[in-house]
Amino acid sequence: MTLPCGCCEGVEVLTPGSLVNPPGLDALTYRVGTHATFLATMEARLSRLVPGLRTRAADDPAVALLDAWALVADVLSFYQERIANEGYLRTATERRSLAELASLVGYRPRPGVAASVFLAFTLDPGYVGEIPHGTRAQSLPGPGELAQPFETSVALAARAEWSRLQPRLRRPQAAAEGNVDPSRPIWFRGIDTRLAPHDMLLVDTGSADPQVYRVREVTLDPAGDRTRVTLQIPETAGVAPGVVERVLEVIDGHLAVERFEVDPAGAMARRVVDRLRRARERLAGPLRIDELAGLLDEDLQASRDQHAEAVRRLYPRLEPWLRSLLEGLADARELLTRAQAGLPLAPHARAAGLGSGHDRRHGRGRVFTRRPRYPHGHGPHRRPAGRSVVRAGPHRAGQT
After folding, report:
1. Nearest to 271 by CA among 259, 282, 262, 283
2. Using an 8 Å Cβ cutoff, are 89 and 99 in contact?
3. Rounded to an integer, what distance in angstroms lies between the CA atom of residue 192 and that of residue 220?
4. pTM
């Protein structure tokens, strides 16, 4: 115990101090004493070892020697504590300590990489020259931040005119194989084309026969000094006669599910019937070639997915119905492709054996009827009564 008067100073041993450290600390306490505690401990022991030395004045040579050694012990204990802290990942503060600790498990830190930025230089009008390598620039620091310096890594050629370069806003339009796609707009240079909706437009690409189109819409772009012209796409009734009728025939034939012995109350049957009814409603209005193609492609993909599901789940009645629908839609899509290419439709385009549970295909010089294929062990292998199968070929003909 040390009183304020100082008369009992140097009579109590204070070192070594306690080194208890509970877990979870960010820094370890590892000093056995400080300058004051070391000096007090040595003075207390001096009273027992040299009883005749009663002075404690700082200018006394004996006390001054004790003070010097207390200073040495204070410095040693400070560095001992720092070394102990650097021996643990949680308390280490130097990168070298962390690297050496990581090397114990074979980890090597990746070397540091300098940050990189893109610099924009503003040049005086008419300037032509070079920005030398190592030109220094620095960031604008925010509140509480420091400016970060950067240097150019290579010499840069600089011209004032380059500061006014703009990105390309347009590109030349090209016709695929010399044909113009009427579903895509045509751009004209200038805004004085004198075109109006419903005007006839003759397009000559130079690589194919000139084509005549009717203008649907004209949009001026004064800022870009150009005119956007949208062409009218002919409706299916005038371009592909018979295709819409073929699709309607396929849909109507398969909406009569009772002919295929399909339960209309089934979940999958309801989905298919709803999809076919929606398609029929769309076919009731005018359609363009691209809209009819999109409708057929969408229904074909849906039919493929549902037919694959019926095959996977072994549905003996749904599978032939969906297969017949899929093949009928595929035939209609082929007819539309021929119409788009300007080819004549096949003479059997409208001869469809639908609604009877059978599929009729048309090949070269051959018309045949095929019975539905049921999975092994499911469904009857029979033909409906009253039906005949006619097979005609170049070498034989018969009837069963």
Report:
1. 262
2. no
3. 9
4. 0.33
Q: Report helix, strand or coil for 306.
A: helix
Query: Which residue type sits at 55?
Result: T
CA-nearest of 214, 250, 213, 242 to 327 is 250
What's phi and psi for 300, nearest 5 deg? -65, -45
Going from the first residue of the chain to its last (400 residues), give the mean pLDDT of each consecutive group of 10, the final group possibly shorter: 51 80 87 89 84 82 90 93 91 90 89 83 88 91 90 90 79 69 85 90 76 87 90 59 81 88 88 90 75 85 91 90 91 81 53 38 33 39 36 34
Name the DSSP letter for residue 161: G
**Dihedral angle at the C-alpha atoms of 64, 66, 71, 77, nearest 10 degrees?**
180
Residues 232, 233, 236, 240: what is their CA dihedral angle, to the nearest 10 degrees? 120
Q: How many angstroms separate the CA atoms of 312 and 308, rounded? A: 6
To 10 degrees, the CA torsion angle through 82, 84, 87, 91?
Answer: -60
C-alpha–C-alpha distance, residues 114 and 5, integer Å? 61
Separation between Cα atoms, residue 320 and residue 369, nearest integer Å: 13
Tokens of 238: 């005038």
378 secondary structure, DSSP code = S
For residue 325, give the 3-state DSSP assignment: helix
Backbone angles phi, psi at 121, to 5 degrees: -100, 130
